[in-house]
Structures are given as C-alpha cells and as structure tokens.
Amino acid sequence: MREAQTTIASLRSVTKNYGAIAALKEVNLDVRAGELLAVLGPNGAGKTTSIRLLLGLSQPGSGEVRVFGRDPRRHENRTRVGAMLQVARVPETLRVREHISLFRSYYPDPLPFAEIVGSAGLDGMENRLFGSLSGGEKQRVLFALAICGNPQLIFLDEPTVGLDVGTRHLIWQQIRKLTSQGRTVVLTTHYLEEGRRERCVAAGFARRSPDIAGRAGAARAFPARSATERAGTDQQQPRRCLPEDH
Question: Burial, 134: exposed, middle or buried (Cβ in 10 Å; 0-12, 13-18, 19+)?
C-alpha cells in the first residue's frame, strides 16, 4: 500500500461569494505533494476562483486556505509557487528574453534561462516582441513565466484553451516532465477529453466535498476505476487525469 502523501495545499470548508452569486460553497480540497491534480468543470463552476484563493489573490468569505501550511499570501510561499492564469496580461513591447529575465529576477533560485526557453519551446523566439507573437506562442511564453522560479507547486488555469495541436502537445509533455521531477501540478480544464481520457493511478480526478460551486451543473467526480483499467501496471507516479500519450 502506498504511503499517505503530504498535503501541501488545501481548502477547508471554503465559501466564496461574488455579490449574490456563490462561486464556492463549503468546498474541501487537498493537493498532495508530487501529484498532478486536474479539476474539471464547465465555465462558472468555480475552478479559477479556487486557483485564485490558493494563490492568495482572493480571500474566502469563510473557511481556511493553506499552502505549505501557511497563508498563501506569505512571501516565502510565493517564491515556491508558479502560475499560468487563464487571463494574464504582460507588456507587449518587451521581448521574450526580457520577460523571462525579469521574472527570473523575482526568485531566489530560478531555473537557468536556457532551460526555461527549451521547456517552453521558445528557441529562436527570444528576441521577438511579445506583441508580435501568435496566440499559441504567447501561451508558451506565459507557461515559461510560470516555471521561471523553479517552483515546487505550479497552477495552470485552463492552459490549453484555444491552442493548436503542437502547442497543446508540448505543454502536456512539460506537465509530465514537471511531475516526473517530483513537482506538484494543479490544472483546471473544461475539456472532457483532458479530464476523462487519461492515465490514472488513483480513483477519480478531483476530491470535492461537496462539488466545486456546490450546485447543479458543476462537474462531478468520475467513478473510481482500478489502476489496471486506467493505467495498466504503471503505479509509480501519483498522477491523476493525465491524457493519453499521443
């Protein structure tokens, strides 16, 4: 039997309202060290709200949010976390290398510049202005910025929305690489194939009590399947909702 993994981020009985709209209602969520956790749900189900709470960008109406056992707003937490948000804006007049160099300067132990560029598939684009890039190329830059700080915990909020096949495949390759290095990845998606057509070694794809958003229409956890059914005999990595290799 596999030993229990350490919980490095959590929501405990968290409720978050935007005016009269309940985005989250009494949500409990554990993120375990070294795993890939995918949160599947339609638009408006509370996925981005959950990520923002765990990043310390928003505060719950009630309940408790913890990352590495502390308030996610603590400086020491921010240097261990990377994020690629669904809606992100960076200056379009800076070059790709300038963005990466700037973000690397924010962290005490950043990844090497060349490793970041290679991981994000940006070789040859370093001197291009961000504003001149295609949509897929911009997503690659945002992914690069998310891993700049050599993070232990990475949040990817719908990272493959609107991407071409090549960029989507590259990002999934890098997600696999990150988890193989022992890093923890939390991603959100509303693509059923990314939450359902996966290799899993643990039952379900997300643990929610009750489900995120606490209302009808929010995605529900898939029923448990055995490791043999979902992933053959590959039971080494505690990955959940990893798409099939292409």
Answer: exposed
H helices of the chain, in order, are: 47-54, 75-78, 96-104, 113-119, 135-147, 165-180, 192-196, 227-231
**pLDDT mean for each 10 residues of the chain (246 residues):** 71 91 86 86 81 94 95 92 86 96 96 96 96 92 96 92 84 90 87 47 31 35 33 39 41
What are the phi and psi torsion angles at 39 (to 5°)? Answer: -110, 110
Phi/psi at 119 (nearest 5 deg)? Answer: -65, -35
Neighbours of 10 (CB within 10 A): 17
CB 8 within 8 A of CB 32: yes
Structure tokens at 180: 């193989």
Q: Give pTM, 2 decimals.
A: 0.78
Length of the chain: 246
